[in-house]
Amino acid sequence: MDMNIRPASALRPLRLSIADDPRWARIVTRDKSADGQLWYSVSTTGIYCRPSCSSRRANPKNVALHDTIESARATGFRPCKRCNPDGPSLDTENATLVAKACRIIEESEEEPSLEELAVAVDRSPSYFHRMFKASTGLTPKAYAAGHRAKKVREGLETGTSVTEAMYDAGFNSSGRFYEKSNGMLGMTPTQYREGGTNEDIKFAIGQSCLGAILVASSSKGVASILLGDDPDALVRNLQDRFPKARLIGMDRDYEALIAQVCGFVENPDVGLDLPLDVRGTAFQRRVWQVLQEIPVGGRMSYSEVARRIGSPSATRAVAGACAANNIAVAIPCHRVVRNDGALSGYAWGVDRKRALLDREALQSA
């Protein structure tokens, strides 16, 4: 007998157990991104589910994996009532309801109450509040405030009078409007409408390993830190942001501040503690606050930032807030990366982002 001949059973490919199948790991973590790509059925309960189902985890020995919904249905089992694998996911359904609520807020002359919005989408007020915040990163009240602030800015930018902008945005009291106007605009409504008239903006330009750096401050603190290759382009950028403000450059005392910023870029360990004049929406401010808590040498994914602000599904909105940041390095949006660690977009160029991270990694090693 030829001892080199292997029995037929030894030639059959080994079948991975469900627990060893990489698809099972996505079910264990209830990976929402796997919804629509994968389904599983459970023989002991006679149901099939989507990966993100919140039901008690099944024993993998009783589970079969399916790459199509047709395969899951072919088992003869019934669809799970909790995760509704045959229909839209809960996240998709909630997103549709949140979009409806946002339209109601935007089209209402006065801010609708939480109870009115909840009734409109047929959910309880507490559930609707959690759902809205998880989807947008804001409470319904904060979203309404942000929308009103946007309407005020748009009205003032098109030349509308302050009074008209106030009422068009849903403010029925001038006292309430002026109480909130500085927080919304970063200056008085009249100054905003006139492009920063009578506002002094000091600025200076320095050079570092990243190229030119422009630092600009209002009376409240640093309002912009801009990076680039062309100093003149940075000044034009600043002029576009404050078209009618008084730009004051080459101030000897102020140049000490630009030296501090350049020194931080060259040696991140020295730290950078500056008073900031942060101008952004309520959501952007929440994101930027988290960014300021990332230590030198640290990195955080967009999804982790979303979780830190209590809005795990707002990853895309977090990326938008990072892109809108106008105060480079002091609000360190360069420390936010993709889930796989890869570098994504950066307002001042991915090469600068990489250089900042590499330098900080060396300093903190």
Q: What's a concise summary of this model?
A:
44% of the residues lie in helices and 12% in strands.
Could you state the CATH homologous superfamily of the largest domain? Homeodomain-like
Q: How helix-rich are the residues, as a percent range?
A: 40-55%
Indicate the CATH architecture of the largest domain. Answer: Orthogonal Bundle
Q: How many helical stretches?
A: 16
Distance between the termini: 64 Å
What is the level 1 CATH name of the largest domain? Mainly Alpha
CATH fold naming of the largest domain: Arc Repressor Mutant, subunit A
Q: Into which percentage range does the β-strand content fall? A: 5-15%
- The tally of structural domains comes to 4
Oligomer: single chain
Q: Tally the beta strands.
A: 10
SSE order, one letter for each helix or strand: HHEEEHEHHHHHHHEEEHEHHEHHEH
Could you name the ranges where pLDDT drops below 50 across 5 or more consecutive residues? 8-14
Within the largest sheet, what's the order of strands?
3-1-2-4
Major beta-sheet overview: 4 strands, mixed
